[in-house]
Amino acid sequence: MKILALETSGITADLCILDTASNKTWDKHLTEVNKVAEVITDEIVSILDLAKIKLNQIDIIAVGIGPGSYTGTRVGIATAKGLAQGLKIPIIGVNNFEALIEGINESAQNKKKIIPLIDAKNSRVYYQLDSSSNKITNQGCDYIKAVLNKIQTKNPIFVGSGASINKEIIIKNFENNIKIEKQDQIMSKYIAQIAYRRASEKSYDDIKTIKPLYLNKPNIG
Amino acid sequence: MNILGIETSCDETAASVVKDGKHILSSVVASQADLFADYGGVIPEVASRKHLELLVPVIEKALKESKLKLEDIDAVAYTKEPGLTPALLVGISHAKALALARNIPAIPINHLEAHVFANSLMPVNDGVEEIVFPHICLLVSGGHTIVILVQNQTKYKILGSTIDDAAGEAFDKVARLLELPYPGGPIIDKLSLDGDPTAYQFPRPLSDKDNYDFSFSGLKTAVMYEVKKSKPKQISKSNELNKQLMENWKSDIAASFQEAVVDILVEKTMKVAIANSVELVTMAGGVAANSRLREKMIRMGNEIGIDVRYPEINMCMDNAAMIAGLAYFQNENR
Q1: ipTM of this complex prediction, to 2 decimal places
Q2: Chain A: which residues have CB within 8 Å of chain B?
Q3: Same structural domain for residues A117 and A69?
Q4: Is A221 within 8 Å of B90 when comparing Cβ atoms?
């Protein structure tokens, strides 16, 4: 199976191709995220060239659905929808919490203790409190102090840009018995890996309804 | 050549298939206007969320109604600018990716140029005459008021524009003063039918100036002062009578304001047309749907021997047919 994965919700953007037959991946990292919409189709052509794979050989489009920058996430999802519609192939959305957890090298038991935190600016974070399930009720956006007060997990493992930026408050709050992982960025190769597992179970998203993980109401201003 | 057009610059999600730049095989518009009625304007984040939700079904409907398949589409055209950036990005991203997937060109289009072009479109088998060049186009909407010399489908010269508010913006602001919902233009048009356009004498700014520019903020301020001064007090004990007084007053303010806007637009546009010796004036943009503007522009045109043309109402509003149509001619020039 050949999977093209796009991730555009963060302060940098990422795309990759995963060829599950040879277990090879090719990555491209884009640092000027405000220009992603201008360059993403060119970058897709470029990574296909790198992998020596044709676009019509791609079997699945995987895309990061955030949470993060809503405009950025929509660029990724709209691009993914255009590709999936044009190639008539399935689309799979993966959220940032899953992608961060996928990148941590821990036992399955310990993975349940992971609290992903993604910077939402102004001392707020997107969070997932319970990583043993992927329920929406355990996810949200709030001030870091309020989030830390909600945590009931013993010996939590923190990961994500929200953890790095708030490291001092976290350590002060928990003293010891916590771990803060270094992984900040959402990597498209983890999105591709998760998408592969879902694709093996034919668990696809609906191209009409796939959307960003909006954990905030729109800013009416 | 069949082109699929995609438009998401503001609060209408639209897709359309147009053949050879002139025949509209389908035109689908999903409007979000109801969402913003109480806010007095479009909220970019809300509009963008809706575009992402609606675009795939809108494209599928446009293809179905055109009786064509994706395989029959030769290019994808999309609105590149101007507009609300987060909203535009949804259409831009989807269109470019779809074109890449189909291995066909992706053609970026300027939204304003597309509005001007809308006068050249016709439904299939319609007996409308081909448009003549050069002509003068009054592009008048919520965001723009510009008078343009149109030399051909893709060549223009701007001859005059607003120095402050756009005409459509003035309609929306006056509607707000009268506590009417957004968008204000169609409501003021309707109210004015029952109102007296001479009840209040509002200024016609820049009408005496020997240039082709417009100004509406002074007019809007004059309306604001009049509204404060003359708004009926609830003097009667009868709710019915109070309500009637208020409605009559609103109709008169609306009609008098609208008359001032229309007079400025008609006078300046015809002035430009005469100075450039053209035989045709066209109108484009949302305000081109205004009934009084259409009526007075035609009347003046008849008096001085200039033809007046404007698109059907749904082609004055944002749509993707004008995007797909213009793309055909821009593609020819590449």
Answers
A1: 0.95
A2: 37, 40-41, 44-45, 55, 70-71, 74-87, 207-209, 211-212, 214, 218-221
A3: no
A4: no
